[in-house]
Design goal:
Layout (H helix, E strand, L loop, with lengths): L1 E9 L3 H19 L2 E6 L4 H7 L5 H9 L2 E6 L15 H10 L4 E7 L12 H4 L4 E7 L9 E6 L2 E6 L5 H16 L4 E6 L5 H14 L6 E6 H10 L6 E4 L1 H14 L7 E5 L5 E5 L16 H13 L4 H16 L2 E2 L9 E2 L2 H10 L2
Parallel strand pairs: 1-2, 1-3, 3-12, 5-10, 8-9, 8-10, 13-14
Antiparallel strand pairs: 4-5, 4-11, 6-7, 11-12
Helix pairs in contact: 1-10, 1-12, 6-7, 8-9, 10-11, 11-12
The structure holds 3-isopropylmalic acid and manganese (II) ion (MN).
The site of manganese (II) ion has 2 residues, from helix 9.
């Protein structure tokens, strides 16, 4: 296959982890006979510095014209005081919205070799952790009406949490389809005891579930879900939830894997174009030191091969190589434990490539 990939390295550790990812993809191309062509574009803080805005039109155009988009990370202290619509994060939200990527898949898997890096007691994770968080990505309060107004308590601000039937339907279907290929168990997370938007959400989930009698469905309020995730992580399979709840719960789930540096993600819409990114941020405190963990980005590459291009064997080659490196005892600082061999970002990339 010949595939065009838009690369958005972004800020902080973004360019470092992206560089390793590209080397891994090139190795896959070599081994399996594919050509990956890359077009690098600016988004986030670097785009603010170079073009005066976080998401230039050219970036959107290049991304739309490509087969798939790869984003590393955006943001940093330097741009933290800018107004909301000029912040680097706008680039991420803008791309998700512009590309119609409503389904965000965040798999949290605890590698056997990383059990020591997981902060939970061993007995809580003895049965393993393999959770797929399916987060709605283009709705809810992230995209609802927002603004400021005067109230009798002084100035106030609001972000409206709104979901339409169609928006809930499509993300719920995505979750059920994924569950069918896994353990056939969906947990819906909402706050329907309080929020009207969650009451609509729950009713649509129940409706969609009728088409999937083979998949077990249960429901948790988001506060309870955050507690259950810690108490019984092994019992979860697919979690479907809205944008803000999914943002929070996926960070929580990431800790089961030992480090947020291990968590990849895929953002999908109705077509084959997807955007792939590590769940972690730009980590400006460790940028440029060659100590970042590139595994989340490299595993996002595997997700791209699988979900956008249908290259399941190639994806597995990456996942297996990552598992081998971990089994061989190599660790970046974030997943380091006693007796293991500590390596930097570039070295980790190389070790993975050697095993493909
Ligand atoms: C994420 C991030 C983003 C989000 C930020 C950077 C806008 O936290 O992808 O989880 O809140 O969605
Ligand atoms: Mn987040």
């Amino acid at each position: 296959m010949k595939l065009n990939i838009a690369l958005v390295p972004g800020d902080g550790i973004g360019p470092e982890v992206m560089a390793q990812n590209v080397l891994v993809l090139n190795k896959i191309g070599e081994k399996f006979g594919h050509t990956f062509e890359y077009k690098e574009v600016d988004a986030g803080g670097i785009a603010i510095d170079k073009h005066g805005e976080p998401l230039p039109q050219n970036t959107i155009d290049v991304c739309k014209a490509s087969d798939s988009v790869f984003l590393a990370a955006v943001g940093g202290w330097k741009w933290d005081t800018l107004p909301g619509n000029m912040r680097p994060e706008r680039a991420l939200l803008g791309l998700r919205g512009e590309l119609g990527l409503y389904a965000n898949l965040r798999p949290a898997t605890l590698h056997e070799a990383l059990k020591d890096a997981c902060p939970l007691k061993p007995e809580l994770v003895k049965d393993g952790v393999d959770i797929m968080v399916v987060r709605e990505l283009t709705g809810g309060m992230y995209f609802g009406e927002k603004g400021r107004k005067q109230t009798d308590m002084g100035e106030a601000a609001y972000d409206v949490e709104q979901y339409s039937v169609e928006e809930v339907k499509r993300i719920t279907k995505t979750a059920f389809e994924i569950a069918r290929k896994r353990k056939k168990h969906v947990t819906n997370v909402d706050k329907q005891n309080v929020l009207e938007s969650s009451r609509l959400w729950r009713s649509v989930v129940l409706e969609v579930a009728k088409d999937y009698p083979d998949v077990e469905l249960d429901h948790l309020y988001v506060d309870n879900a955050s507690m259950q995730l810690i108490m019984r992580p092994s019992t979860f399979d697919v979690i479907v939830t809205g944008n803000i709840f999914g943002d929070i719960l996926s960070d929580e789930a990431s800790q089961m894997t030992g480090s947020i540096g291990m968590l990849p993600s895929a953002s999908l819409g109705s077509g084959s174009l997807g955007m792939y990114e590590p769940v972690h941020g730009s980590a400006p405190d460790i940028a440029g030191k060659d100590i970042a963990n590139p595994i989340a980005t490299i595993l996002s590459g595997a997700m791209m091969l699988k979900y956008s291009f249908g290259l399941a064997d190639e994806a597995k080659a990456i996942e297996d190589a990552v598992a081998k490196v971990l089994n061989d005892g190599y660790r970046t600082g974030d997943i380091m434990s006693e007796g293991m061999k500590k390596v930097g970002c570039k070295e980790m990339g190389k070790l993975i490539i050697d095993r493909i």
